[in-house]
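Example 5.3 — ABM domain-containing protein
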Amino acid sequence: MTAVSLYVELKAKPGKEEEVAAFLAGAQSLVAAEPGTIAWFAVRYDKDTFAIFDAFDNEAGRGAHLSGQVAAALMAHAGELLAAAPQIRKADVLADKLPA
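Solution (predicted structure tokens):
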């Protein structure tokens, strides 16, 4: 069962909204190569508010993702693209429903 997750809220700088959207869409291929990432979603709430939600079977998977390519690229471009630092929240998963 999925045990832990991350929720990361991102607020784009004015004029950088589409660049953030493109960055997130392009990150999917990097996450696909992470065996410990069980589920990953990049979403857009409104013009400038985005989020990433991902889930892992264990802390090792979550740790590998946090030190992986997507996190590194996001932090490298955060000052250019984001109005504030990413808000990273770790959570324990109480229940899940994933494809078999």
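Remark. The chain has one domain: 4-90.
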